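Explain the record.
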Amino acid sequence: MTAATETDRALVGRVAKGDRAAVRLLFMRHHARVYRFVVRQTGSEMMADDIANEVFLELWRQAPGFEGRSEVSTWLLGIARFKALSSLRKKKEDWIDDDDAAQIADGADTPEVVTMKEDKGAALRRFVDALPEEHRTVIDLAYYHGQSVTEIGEVLGIPVATVKTRMFYARKKLGEALKAAGYDRGWP
């Protein structure tokens, strides 16, 4: 097998065994994609260059733990996203000093808004409970358990299209119930 035809997964396997040439090949294949992704995330070419290089250092460190549950390119972009968010967070923390922080207005909700949200939340829970069981279940799995449409289909043993249809009708019924009870769309 030539280097050009070797799969990314096989290269990660070689990296896990300490093969520096495999890291270089993966770098050549994926650096541009990772770099462009990070530029879009951060808005900074300089930051993106540093982060993209860090991604391949992480590849070197984490290769033994790569389980192959996703494509290598997806894994690398996930590492890049995490590193970009961390850098942006750190940059923001470095940028704000104590005097500036004291000048920032408190964005917390007022007691009135908190009460409105609690009332609307309680009403929404009542409306969800009043839905037919098939609609209530998909809403519960999606919004209270964070399941994807595919995962809900697997849990319920139904096609994804059926999950989507049930979600559509459940949301429609919830919207109508909220409107009839005098609640506006949105939050609070």
Remarks:
- The radius of gyration is 24 Å.
- The domain at 113-180 is CATH 1.10.10.10 (Arc Repressor Mutant, subunit A).
